[in-house]
Specification:
This protein is 24% helix and 20% strand. It has helices at residues 3-28, 39-56, 161-178, 180-184, and strands at 69-71, 77-81, 103-107, 136-138, 143-149, 187-193, 196-201, 215-216, 221-224, 236-241, 251-252, 254-256, 267-270. The strands form 3 sheets. Strands 2, 3, 5, 6, 7, 8, 10, 11 and 13 form a 9-stranded antiparallel β-sheet that branches. The longest helix is centred in the first third of the chain and has 26 residues, at 3-28. Keywords: Membrane, Transmembrane, Transmembrane helix.
């Protein structure tokens, strides 16, 4: 087991330790100050801060610097970017899970087709209310499938203020303790060769058309966009990494052929391509 993997497991163990101490303190009436219960939580976040700086690698550090890897866009049609490495790195505020250069994209087939954020009502929407749900996800290059993780449900959206607060303050923390597969939801990883791997997260349950060990061609449909894992609405979370396990990998910068790296809020179009038969 790598040092980073051990550190991530220790981080989750400390979080669980905090919950156990608080529960025991309430149930057993221990006499010491309740503030001591927060010690495991403090240690957990000191640990994760150190791990993110050490394990992620500063993008401008010569040891970790890499030229962007050019790959094909993983979708076709009209989309817009949300969290993007074109705006900042790390794009999601952390190097954890190899997501230094990750990008989130949502389908925008036409203006107004995607439900807007609502302050209070509706609290949540079904996944199929969003145009991204069920859209085919395609191989970004000729590759080998090295990980397929399926079985998690596609939950309701978190696109109201109460829903977003629930995601950030409650659900996100619980998923963090459950490990990377609870964060990414249903996901797959492709080995592109040359020490580069592509990860697709929040995939629709039961939509995979490939299995681990399969060879795929660029443009081949792999699965469909979903809303599993730590997701506020159906979207694709895409990233390149230097290893197959997001728990231990470092992020690798990418650029999409014909598109580049869209900035947050930028709308981009990818032309429909001819269907790709399985390799």
């Amino acid at each position: 087991m790598s040092a980073r993997k051990l550190a991530m497991r220790t981080f989750r163990g400390l979080q669980l330790g905090f919950i156990a101490l608080v529960t025991a303190h309430i149930c057993l009436g221990w006499g010491y100050s309740r503030w001591w219960n927060f010690l495991p939580l403090l240690l957990a976040y000191v640990l994760i801060t150190v791990v993110n700086r050490w394990g992620g690698g500063a993008p401008d550090h010569p040891r970790f610097a890499r030229e962007p890897v050019e790959v094909d866009p993983p979708v076709t049609g009209r989309w817009s970017a949300l969290n993007s490495p074109a705006d900042r790195t790390p794009s999601h505020g952390t190097h954890a899970y190899g997501q230094t250069y990750a990008i989130d994209i949502v389908a925008e087939p036409e203006p107004g087709a995607r439900p807007a954020f609502s302050p209070l009502w509706p609290l949540a929407r079904r996944p199929d209310a969003f145009p991204a749900f069920g859209v085919p996800l395609r191989a970004a290059a000729d590759a080998t499938v090295v990980r397929v993780s399926d079985g998690q449900r596609d939950h309701l959206s978190r696109t109201s203020l109460p829903g977003l607060l629930y995601l950030m303050l409650v659900e996100g923390s619980v998923r963090e303790m459950g490990g990377v597969h609870r964060i990414t939801g249903n996901h797959l990883v492709l080995d592109l060769g040359g020490g580069t791997y592509a990860a697709y997260a929040h995939v629709r349950r039961g939509s995979f058309t490939v299995h681990e060990g399969d060879r795929v061609r660029a443009g081949q449909v792999l699965a469909r966009c979903g809303n599993s894992g730590n997701s506020s609405e159906p979207h694709l979370h895409f990233q390149l990494m230097d290893g197959p396990d997001p728990d231990t990998a470092r992020g690798v910068p990418f650029t999409w052929s014909g598109v580049g790296v869209p900035r947050g809020g930028e709308v981009f179009d990818v032309p429909e391509s001819a269907p790709i038969a399985p390799a």
